[in-house]
Amino acid sequence: MKRSNRTIAWKAAMALTAGGMVWAGSAQAQLAGHNVILVHGFQQEDLASPPADLNAVRNAGEDYWRTFWLSRSDARIDWGSDGRIEGNIAQQAYQQLRQISQQGLCNNYCIVVSHSTGDLVTRYLLENQARWLQADGLPPLRILAALDYSGAGGGTELADLALSIAYNDSWYNWPLKQAVSAFTGITPEPGRLGVVNDLQTNVARNLAVSPNNIPRLRFVAGGSSYGGITKPFISGTDDGVVPTHSACGATSSSGIDSCSGSISLSGKVANQNGPSGLYYNHYPVLMNEGVTHSGVLGSETGNTSVPVVNNTTLNGLRVDFASRTYNQRAWWQWWGAGDQYIEVPGSAQTDMSTLVYNTLNN
Amino acid sequence: MPLKAILVALLTLAFVAGLGRWLAVDNTSVFSWATGSNGGPSASNPVASHPASANPSARQALTPEPSDNALGFMLASVADEYQHAVRYPDYSIPLSAAQAEAYQGNRYQPVALPLEGGGQFTVTLEKFRYVQQEDILVVASLSGNQVVNDRLDAVLESAQSRSKADRAALTPSDESGYFQGTLKAQGEPGEYRLIVEATVDGQPVRHASTLTIEPDLGEFNGLGRVTTRGNDLVIPLRFEARESGAYALSAQLVHRGEPVAQLQTEKQLDTTSDTLELKAHGTVLANREIDGELGLMHIQIRRLPARPGDRTDYAFGPEEGYRFTPPDLDSLTDTPAGDPESEQRAALFRQLADKF
């Protein structure tokens, strides 16, 4: 899910620089020596104006990642948001999976980078790709890990609400309607919601949830999208589109405030309403209270990232995180040491995508 | 004169406040009694105030020096956890209580629709997937200050064709304020909308959510002879499929009501009676005191989509599951599974982590 209100000027500027970025990317593609496959999120333009064909889907997919990852990727799996995951989306994705398999791009293990609904699409594809490819005489893709930014694999309450709004033509809860319209980009109607149907919390959490051995590294945002009008309608904390319960990989859709029971999205060390459990092989890595849903893809700096430290023992050694903590006092706290915070030093000077990319390519 | 007095008072107040603030910011240890903390670096320069830089030698002697790269540390932690996870083959993974609940499958968590004035219109179902002709118990509640009619209407509508499959009235169940009624899962397999309509303050308000109707995939015919093979406890489960295809079977192994492991397998079945083997690996059994019976609960079989775009169909085993007395488990050991792909993945992760 990404803001659709890109201006024409923005697109034009991006188009002008696109050639250079792709060229630069060809030299820099790969992450830690592994090819990168991008799986984008919900594109609300597709609901208002469904893409004409796969070329249109591919073009929109390319645009989606221009901010940062496009030039650092080796392949993409693009899909139209007007479809359903167990429908057109699977068909479109499979055409691209076939090409990736034929080209052998994942022979040495790929890293999938997903955003938002791309998390759910990836999960579904990982469950089925080996069987489909083998049936066509092709080798399955070997995936090292998925880096899931603002993962919507657990759905979002905004999709639950969008469905009810679609069936309430005369109902008048104005703030709710505005929030749903901001999220979907349309006035919802039955039959026009496309992948938003799959994002209902119960639908998402009943789709391809079987555990597997591919690790999912979770990067969680907590900023405000759409001027904050969607936040009141999402359980727990959220990034304006995706609730934290989904982004962390929590086993329940009950609202939570953080991926950790002891560190807040802002890094404050204090008891939190964290998840009671995480899906198997789901690992929350970073949280960032300030960055927005789409800002995690590289467009926003100035927000501090927080490591999701649940266990400070590594290889049997206890690591003291005091070296990365600081104390901050609220404006009204005149004395005392203030609250203790934990952070990734220097993370506010960069964006979440660059931070991860540079670290892995260190 | 009064003006001077006010000015003096203000200046005094500002001086005291400034002094207090200055002392608090730059000399936190003086005030450590307030928080029990030994003070810490300032917010304005968290990196520079690294305790290790203040007294590196003393610090080194106390604790192992962490990597300077916090994200690197996190990646190393993930590599560490993943290294532990690959001890278990993906057909037999251990479960925490929360994971056990999540992997039961077929869960429907209540869906709430906010009403104006802070109220909520909530619908709850027992599950998300129903087999054809099964009863669907619908429970709804409305909270808030609205005036609500004493009857709600529920309609089951095909998501694709929008044809109505069934309708029912939901009536107040008792004094608790819940409304309930029962629909029948009649209609072709697929996705359906459950639309519950209430009249709130004289206006119709519809709550829409999703459920599915599943086809009859076949018959569960109980367990075969449970044995040990290699480092696995092998549990054969007979399933007579109506149609041939690729099927995935999953279930939770339980002991004395406690979940032990999530078991899963895939197999191509034909229309004659066939058997799928669930296997519990030694890593989930060897360190447990197993006495008496084991059970298989939350049994779920899926007919997997043959081609992209096909639907996954679901069926469920008996609610009470199956119980069995295991053979002697002494031969099972807590030896890592050694799945080559997982091991390779773990090694690559370790390579990444070793940089930090």
- Average pLDDT rating of chain B: 85
Helix- and strand-based class of chain B?
Answer: alpha+beta
First CA to last CA of chain B: what distance? 68 Å
> What number of domains of chain A?
1
| H/E element sequence of chain A | HEHHEHEHEHHHEHEEEEEEH
At the fold tier of CATH, the topology name of chain A is: Rossmann fold
CATH class of chain A: Alpha Beta
* Proportion of beta-strand residues of chain B: 35-45%
Main interface pair?
Answer: A-B, 101 and 103 residues
Please report the distance between the alpha carbons of the first and last residues of chain A: 29 Å
Question: What are the main properties of this structure?
Answer:
heterodimer, A: 362 residues, alpha/beta, Rossmann fold, two-stranded antiparallel ribbon, 10 helices, 11 strands, 13% strand, disordered N terminus, B: 356 residues, alpha+beta, Immunoglobulin-like, nine-stranded mixed beta sheet, 19 strands, 22% helix, 39% strand
Question: Could you characterize what this model shows?
Answer:
The complex is a heterodimer of chains A (362) and B (356). Chain A has 10 helices and 11 strands. The longest helix of chain A has 21 residues. Chain A has a single domain, classed as Rossmann fold (3-Layer(aba) Sandwich). Chain A has 362 residues and is α/β, with parallel strands linked by helices. In chain A, helix 5 links the parallel strand 3 and strand 4. Chain A is 31% helix and 13% strand. Chain B has 356 residues and is of the alpha+beta class. Among the domains of chain B are: 121 residues, Immunoglobulin-like (Sandwich), CATH 2.60.40; 98 residues, Sandwich (Immunoglobulin-like), CATH 2.60.40. Helices cover 22% and strands 39% of the residues of chain B. Chain B is built from 7 helices and 19 strands. A 9-stranded mixed β-sheet of chain B has the order 2-3-5-8-7-6-9-10-4, with no helix packed on it. In chain B, strands 1, 14, 15, 17, 18 and 19 form a 6-stranded antiparallel β-sheet that branches. In chain B, strands 11, 12, 13 and 16 form a 4-stranded antiparallel β-sheet that branches. In chain B, strand 6 and strand 7 form a beta hairpin. About 12% of the residues of chain B have low confidence. Classes of the chains: A alpha/beta (362), B alpha+beta (356).
